[in-house]
Records
---
Amino acid sequence: MTGEDLTDRMWLELSALAGDRWPAIRRAVAARIAADLLAELDRPPPPASRLHRERQLRADQFCHREVA
Amino acid sequence: MSGQGETLHQKASRLMNEYEALGPRPGGESAYTEAMLAYQQLIAAHPEDARLHLEYGYLQECHGRISIRAAVGCYERAIELDPGWDKPHYQLILALSALVDSQRAIDLYKRRLAASPDQIREYRFLANAYLRNGALEEAGKVIAAGRKLEPDDDMLLAAEAELLDASGRREEALSAWRALKQRDPDDLSPYFMSAFTLEALGRCREAAAEWRYIISWLEAHNDTVHTTWPKEMLEGIEAKLAAADANVSSDNS
């Protein structure tokens, strides 16, 4: 059984146990999942990739100027 | 502003600059139309002139960008008018990525996810926005988070298949597309995706089988107009196969 199967089964069991309160529980869990995800996504990129991106932007600007 | 006694190239160049500056504003579109004609005449007269090809290409690129920007406005309006419809969101993400403006899509769908964290569609949109931006690691995080909410979501599986393919894990991508084909045989996307990947892997016979399925599905659903391109793709692959077969025959003789 994979972690995914386990999550799948856990959700099914939780939804059956929670009955009418399930939508509220799901919303609360979703809010936590999204908050954790967004916090992780908002972390600054590692310096190497940021440097690469800056170089790319500068190169792009140079290319546009040269063509126009 | 037109110059007295200017050459055709000077005129074309001036019109291109006017179009670049004005875009969709008054005078822009007529400058574009005139510039196109001028460059077509110039290239017909000087087909070996690299600079003319560059400028003609740049003119068309400007036009393409302006058209895509207009498309972005249309999709945004469609979303306002019908907030529950997913299709314009996916088109918006694609259009913004074509403008190399994926960051705008990412920021938008992050805000939307923060506002509606229990809506699985918001994870799908954000995962797509990252995928279109080539941000594979972030796309993977969004897919994993969405899976916590809906472990068996087809659209997240489709996004994961793309992610696997883009990461070079092509066998796993093909396996995900196989699963999607079984879930919904009327969704042609996994067939298209498989065809591209199989051809990239040099598995042309299998790629040809995908294109044949696509063509027969479209014909069976009275959509022959959309078979033109798949038929061209199939012809290309069949030509490759024929060339490979001919090579094998000549090696054996």
---
Amino acid sequence: MYNIIGYFEAETVANAAALLAENPNLRLIAGGTDVLIKMHGGQIDNAELLSLRKIKSLAGIRKAEDGTIVIGSMATFTQVFQDPILREMIPILTEAAISMGGPQIRNIATIGGNVCNGATSADSAASLFALNAQLKLEDQQGERIVAIREFYLGPGKVALKPGEILTEIRITPENYLGFGGQYIKFAMRKAMDIATLAVSVLCKLHGQMFDEVRIGLGVAGPTPLRCLEAEAYAKGKEVSAATVAEIGKLAVKSSQARTSWRASKDYREHLVEELVQRALKTAIVKAGGEELV
Amino acid sequence: MFKKIAFSVNGKAFNCEVDIRESLLELLRNRLGYTGAKKGCGVGECGACSVLIDGVPFDSCIYLAVWADGKQITTIEGVAAKNGELSEVQKAFVAEGAVQCGFCTPGLVLTTKAMVESGQEYTRDQIKRELSGHLCRCTGYQSILKAAEKSLEGHMCTCIEER
């Protein structure tokens, strides 16, 4: 038995927002693959749950007229992986989705829950950071949009105010069109494991030059992060093995890796340097560039 | 706190009050007697508690019983025919010696059944991926993979690997 003292189910976002406004102690539950595990581990006691599972409007993935891809927060990882639009337009997100847990977990765990859990190891995070994803947060008063980089505040801490619900994850066309990308999850097992390091790279080329490079990292600091120094360096540089090597080195500077039981700081930094290069090399080819030898 | 829900297990309809604190696994095992679903890790890592909900595998230990409202649940007890004849998937597991201690077997049979019934084609890598949510500490997985492949004969894709 889980330590649950109250259970509410919302049918609509407005309904959920009203319940949440009425009782700020309610804890939102989506797929439950984090919340129930925390209860099992005793980190959450006497929970009053507000389930979002019956809110059908949150489960879809669509492309808006302006090309913005809108992922409902209750979309499961299986849904994200199988979605034809995402597979075609944003494979770094579908690859991240399939790397998470195992099939039974992906069938229930939601992308919104993954984001709101605030873990640096969230499998969607490195890619959502590279994609400059925007989050739509709704409460009884209205809604606001927050950039994902401003949403992650610290380990397990996100910028969700009391009463707010994450309803949509939005990726605008200027953040995915024309990019080649690659996602790499480094873990001890190929399934059912938490990343030792996650790297998501996007790049856009202009002839022989890098027009834009974006590097999102997971488990390289207390929150997912971007390697802004390496990205600034890359802009306008020639696409070459030397440039890629320098980008790898600079990426380490932005990381704030630490030693945990999974891996040491030094090992993680080595992974950052190496995997950023590997991911970028593949991303270059996917962006239409030539393979670097 | 209790909540009234309606659902079916292996085609049998149930209408009952469930405790909001209960997992589907606890409901199935402790109250309804479907002990084929096993409690392993209790946190959705081992897959021993897997059941099919509307044909899709879920870990029932981290699925609240109240969520089962309106759902069709299949446990291992509902896989063989009523006269006791094993299903094709079960026969494949027997034929390949994919069962040792048996603790992981109900979940693996159900996941394989879901693959067979999906009507999709699978590559070997995809089969491995679909089975990856089940831990087996006896077999080393080879015989399980063979059993799954045998079950999926005719649904195996021999094309170049593509996810």
